[in-house]
């Protein structure tokens, strides 16, 4: 049987209750996203690819902006155009914060996606979008860093590319935070990006 001496005082209980509530409210403030939260992930730590002007680009070039990275190829019949149309819509939905978003399109088909082709392709969706490329080895290394799958699929005398259709999102400090699924809407993308741009 507890004695009066061992029993916690009313003030102690109130303090403990208050701390518990603070702890709970802290948990509730954790951001909830439509996409997959990959904060702290070891993938997609950086890249070193060229833009259509031949300038080497890394994540550090886009510090201060949210960055959306999508892997694809310019002859893609549906997934890639859909992803870039959605990205342009997301930029519009963000309003003035749209200027704080950088969209990067990384080609998995550098043999056909020349700098000129990449530049014209991304500009067709938004002049601010940047196409990035590397040689075959650099492309493979970059895809591995992001855990992105791609492969050539023969189509008679030519070929197409099978590839992962995910969008990777970095916060303005350059940390990978989200992976967004191709099935998600522009509104869902924009909701998540607004939280990262706060």
Automatic annotation (TrEMBL):
Q: Does the keyword NAD apply?
A: no
Instruction: Quote the SUPFAM superfamilies the UniProt record gives.
Output: Thioredoxin-like
Write down the Pfam families for this protein, in alphabetical order.
SCO1-SenC (PF02630)
Q: Is Ribosomal protein found in the keyword set? A: no
Q: Cross-referenced InterPro entries, in alphabetical order?
A: SCO1/SenC, Thioredoxin-like_sf, Thioredoxin_domain
Gene3D superfamilies named in the record: Glutaredoxin
Residue ranges occupied by any Thioredoxin domain in the UniProt entry? 38-198
UniProt keywords (A-Z) are:
Copper
The record's similarity note reads:
Belongs to the SCO1/2 family.
- Protein name (Swiss-Prot/TrEMBL): SCO family protein
Organism of derivation? Comamonas resistens
């Amino acid at each position: 049987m507890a004695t009066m001496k061992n029993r916690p005082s009313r003030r102690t209980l109130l303090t403990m209750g208050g701390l518990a509530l603070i702890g709970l409210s802290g948990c509730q403030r954790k951001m909830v996203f439509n996409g997959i939260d990959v904060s702290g992930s070891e993938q997609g730590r950086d890249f070193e690819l060229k833009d259509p002007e031949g300038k080497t680009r890394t994540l550090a070039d886009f510090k201060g902006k949210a960055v959306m990275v999508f892997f694809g190829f310019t002859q893609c019949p549906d997934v890639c155009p859909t992803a870039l149309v959605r990205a342009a819509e997301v930029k519009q939905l963000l309003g003035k914060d749209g200027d704080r978003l950088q969209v990067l399109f990384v080609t998995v088909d550098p043999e056909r996606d020349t700098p000129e082709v990449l530049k014209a392709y991304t500009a067709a969706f938004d002049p601010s979008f940047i196409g990035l490329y590397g040689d075959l080895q650099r492309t493979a290394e970059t895809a591995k860093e992001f855990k992105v799958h791609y492969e050539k699929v023969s189509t008679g005398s030519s070929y197409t590319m099978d590839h992962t259709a995910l969008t990777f999102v970095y916060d303005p400090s350059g940390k990978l935070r989200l992976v967004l699924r191709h099935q998600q809407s522009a509104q869902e993308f924009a909701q998540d990006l607004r939280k990262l741009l706060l």
